[in-house]
């Protein structure tokens, strides 16, 4: 059974880099991981052929608890907005229409505080990376 972890985000937009941070941590454990900007077509390319797909993405919630994360499968049930214009929900819709949705898809959405220009996660989001990485690894075959 093949698996891929996809970290969605932009490391130059502060907390939006949480997905790539988790992808790097997972890759350091020897797991296949990709980093994506969230474009629906590129997401589908990243998960092509994988039986298990775990996506980690930053979300903005109101009110937010930076660093709190949510696990969901489809249909998407997190009351938040992606930090990208188009992203995971649109990719899943397109994949379903094209019959290219992975068999097992899990989404981890991490509440963020700062998606302004700059590098480095805020302390609350950075503190969530280790536990989130452990949870992501537990999803994999």
Task: Walk me through the structure.
There is one protein chain. The chain has 141 residues and is α/β, with parallel strands linked by helices. The chain has one domain: Rossmann fold, CATH 3.40.50. Helices cover 31% and strands 23% of the residues. The protein is built from four helices and six strands; from the N terminus they run E-H-E-H-E-E-E-H-E-H. Strands 1, 2, 3, 4, 5 and 6 form a six-stranded mixed β-sheet that branches. Helix 1 packs across helix 4. The protein is globular.
- Low-pLDDT runs of 5+ residues are 77-84
Q: What is the CATH topology assignment?
A: Rossmann fold
Q: List how many beta strands DSSP finds.
A: 6
CATH architecture: 3-Layer(aba) Sandwich
Number of domains: 1
Give the termini separation: 7 Å
Structural Rg: 14 Å
Listing every helix as H and every strand as E from the N terminus to the C terminus, the arrangement reads: EHEHEEEHEH
Helix content, binned percent? 25-40%
* Percent range for β-strand residues: 15-25%
- SS summary, helix count: 4
CATH class: Alpha Beta
Return the average pLDDT rounded to an integer: 87
Let me know the largest β-sheet: 6 strands, mixed
Structural shape: globular
Structural class: alpha/beta
**CATH homologous superfamily placement:** HybD-like
């Amino acid at each position: 059974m093949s698996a891929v972890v996809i970290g969605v985000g932009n490391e130059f937009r502060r907390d939006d880099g949480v997905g790539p941070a988790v992808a790097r941590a997972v890759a350091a454990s020897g797991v296949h991981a990709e980093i994506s900007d969230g474009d629906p077509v590129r997401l589908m390319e990243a998960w092509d052929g994988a039986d298990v797909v775990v996506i980690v993405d930053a979300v903005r919630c109101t009110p937010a608890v930076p660093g709190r994360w949510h696990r969901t499968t489809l249909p998407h049930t997190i009351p938040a907005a992606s930090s990208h214009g188009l992203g995971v929900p649109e990719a899943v819709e397109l994949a379903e229409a094209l019959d290219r949705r992975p068999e097992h898809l899990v989404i981890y959405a991490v509440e963020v505080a700062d998606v302004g220009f700059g590098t480095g996660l805020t302390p609350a989001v950075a503190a969530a990376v280790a536990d989130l990485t452990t949870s992501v690894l537990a999803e994999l075959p």
